[in-house]
Amino acid sequence: MDLWVTEYQTPSLGFSCKVKETLRYEKTEFQELSVVETEQFGKMLLLDGMVQTTEQDEFVYHEMITLVALNSHRNPEKVLIIGGGDGGTLREVVKHPAVSQATLVEIDERVVIASKDFFPDLACAFSEPKAEVLIADGIEYVKQQHQSFDLIIVDSTEPVGPAIQLFSREFYQSVYDALKDDGMLVVQSESPFYNQNVIKMAFGGINQVFPLTKLYLANIPTYPSGLWSFTVGSKLYDPQLPSCSYSQGCKYYTPEIHQAAFQLPAFVSRIIE
Ligand code: SAM
């Protein structure tokens, strides 16, 4: 009998992939974790039934959540990643020549372990000399930092469970305080088709705290609707203007995509008006 995995992306829409094999299923302290081998996208990581990453399309998300900010900040030496326990964002950050130190704060150690066990192309950066991996709540960690980072990337799950506070104005204020005077924040802010409230919450909250807030888009086939948004808050630099063109080994990001990603369809501009 065929086995399929379905993510219920809205109350009336499911996204299904044919599964060759279930590789892991467990209830961690924080969430339900599964790793399945799909026919279409290779290995897929799901948390609470929501697709987090797949072998085939992870490059889009991980290049786009990192390189837009890394290439528009003039000197992104110290980077903090909140969440991102699969390691894909860390892999892109440590590759960047301007970065000298990358700290990843993931709440759920089981996600890091699953990545090490099944996603070697994502987990490859955990042991890099530039990388530091901490198992802790990113919200509490950020509160203890003061002007410590050049760039903070929030690579979180959807705003449910342990990630809900990661979309609050109070959290964005702590991030602002943890950034240096020319610091930047990037968050994944979900689908403009299905999650307009999340975009309003992220963009609106960041915009209340940072002098410059911008939204950009990327196409990610396994995320709800395939069109995904990211929101940047910046203290100084315009994130739309790359000052460096680093894109070695990239499969999605180019300096042209960097600028084009900020061109928004009319209905998306209206969400953040
Ligand atoms: N790319 C993904 C997406 O948008 O679907 C997100 C990937 S990553 C696996 C998300 C991680 O954020 C999860 O491993 C989750 O445990 C972590 N996370 C959620 N809340 C957190 C918190 N408060 N502090 C640190 N990590 C958190």
TrEMBL record:
Residues 2-235 form the PABS domain. Pfam families: Spermine_synt_N (PF17284), Spermine_synth (PF01564). This is Polyamine aminopropyltransferase. Spermidine binds at H62, D86, D155, S156, T157, E158. The keyword Cell membrane does not apply. GO terms for cellular component: cytosol. Pathway: Amine and polyamine biosynthesis; spermidine biosynthesis; spermidine from putrescine: step 1/1. It catalyses: S-adenosyl 3-(methylsulfanyl)propylamine + putrescine = S-methyl-5'-thioadenosine + spermidine + H(+). The keyword Plastid does not apply. Keywords: Polyamine biosynthesis, Spermidine biosynthesis, Transferase. The active site is at D155. Its EC number is 2.5.1.16.
